[in-house]
Amino acid sequence: MYDYQSDATKFLNKLLEERPELAQQRLDNRNLLWDVTLKPEEEAGFEAAKVAKKPYTYYQD
Question: What domain count does the chain have?
């Protein structure tokens, strides 16, 4: 099988071996941006702001 690893991958793997606490920090920081729970009023606002999609995208008005 093909077993190539780029220099960047090797660097990151070595860094995680030397500093295993970075893996947990990475997950914690990911939660700040991506794993966010929205409040019901925020969800309602996003739902109200949706624009209806045209049935045929390439049809000219």
Answer: 1
User: In this predicted structure, what is the pLDDT of residue 61?
Assistant: 64
Indicate whether 22 belongs to any domain.
Answer: yes
Amino acid residing at 44? A
- Which two tokens mark 61? 């008005």
Pick from 36, 32, 11, 12: nearest CA to 22: 12
pLDDT tens digit sequence for 12-55: 999 999 999 999 999 889 888 888 888 999 999 999 999 888 88
Among residues 23, 25, 1, which one has the least CA distance to residue 13?
Answer: 23
User: Does residue 18 lie within any of the structural domains?
Assistant: yes
Domain assignment present for 35 = yes
Q: Is 20 helix (H, G, I), strand (E, B) or coil?
A: coil
